[in-house]
Amino acid sequence: MLTQKVDMICEKISNIDKLTEKLNKFDKTVNSMVKSVESINKRVDEVEKGLNFINTEFENNKKDVREVKKKNLTEIRSENEEAIETIAKLQKDFDDLNEKQLDQQTRAMRENLVFTGIPMHDKNELSDDTEKIIQNFMTTELKMSTLPEFHRAHRFGKEYTEKHSDGSIKFITKPIVCRFVNYKQRELVRKAARELKDTKYGINEQFPKEINERRKALWPHFQEARRQKKKAFFKRDRLFIDGNEFLPKNNTHRVMDTDERQTRSSHPQKDQGARPKEFNQPKNSQPRRGPRKGPH
């Protein structure tokens, strides 16, 4: 009986030893896990610190970028505004120079008239022959007994072919530019142009190409005003209707003051113009010969 109890006690002690051993192992395991958790916590803290540092740097960089962007945009806007102002000034200066050049060209053409519809008898017509044709034209067609004096006359521009109804050639013509000795002499011829009504001939003032284009754009409005029995007339590249200047939409060119009016023809070549040869000569150059004048 006693022996059995002793054996039981020994067995229990042995179990207690085993349990103690297991507890020791478990304790070691727990301690190891605690150390691991502490290590993990430490690493997490380091990661958090790193993330906080990155976030701080990101915010700082973001702020710097905003400031740089704002500064650059401000500078770019300022430079852009300055560039726009400079371009606008250059454009204005260019427009001013262009208008001055047009004005000089127009003044140089002030004594010129362009005759259209006068047939060519020879494609190689000489200036001397052209001048005689103009003299004869002013006598026969304009009914002028006293012929105005002019410096020279010559053909220019494109040929125009007038045809019969069957398609055969009636005559070939090119415009003639005639430079009179002064504006008064020119106006005598222009006023006599009323004799050309309902004929194939036309007499027009000569203008630079750009002025002609402006006048051409206004021409339909001029015709409409005339159809409505309104008083309409041109002053160089400006149209006046019933005493008021007509300004079409999108009108961007600058206008110029002058008292010249336009004489139009029904001929297809109306509105043609070209610079007289004198315009390209040196300032001190003289006409190649004296003014032409018909018999009185």
UniProtKB/TrEMBL annotation:
Bias-annotated ranges (Basic and acidic residues): 254-280
UniProt keyword list: Coiled coil
Stretches the record annotates as Disordered: 248-296
Name of the protein: L1 transposable element RRM domain-containing protein
Lineage of origin: Eukaryota, Metazoa, Spiralia, Lophotrochozoa, Mollusca
Protein's UniProt keywords contain Coiled coil: yes
Coiled-coil stretches: 66-107
